[in-house]
Amino acid sequence: MKHPAPASDESRDSVRLDLWLWAARFFKTRALAKQAIETGKIEIGGQRAKPARGVRVADALRIERGEEVFEIEVRALSDVRGPAGIAQTLYAETEASRLGRESARATRAAERAGYRAPESKPDKRARRLIRALGDIDAT
């Protein structure tokens, strides 16, 4: 018995959400995509979704991945994980989302740049100064 060939991307009107997220390279595995969906980090049209929910062209998705938040519109459907260049054609990110991610990234970088740990332990003279400064508050 011969199995039917899988339908091409153009003939389908929807693809499973977890499969699409994997194909669009938002998550490394389908299991990670499914976990993100089940924990409420993925929304379609402002509503939580299930992994098997169908994604259609023109759907608005909100994806939280780590500290990044993507707001995208689905442009094409695929259930095959391909090169990154092709995966980026599956969606279009809103300008506000892109600017928000860039500003959040800059804020995190600025927070990390403010404090630098000392390169080595304080020497004997520095330890005495630290102790002396500590005693100022005690009096």
From TrEMBL:
InterPro entries named among the record's database cross-references: HSP15, S4_RNA-bd, S4_RNA-bd_sf
Pfam families given in the database record: S4
Keywords assigned by UniProt, alphabetized: DNA-binding, RNA-binding, Stress response
Keyword DNA damage: no
Region of interest: Disordered: 101-127
Listed SMART domains: S4
Coiled-coil portions: none
RNA-binding S4 domain ranges (all copies): 15-76
Composition bias type Basic and acidic residues, residue spans: 101-123
Domain of life (superkingdom): Bacteria
Gene3D superfamilies membership: RNA-binding S4 domain
UniProt family annotation: Belongs to the HSP15 family.
Protein name: Heat shock protein 15
Organism: Agrilutibacter niabensis
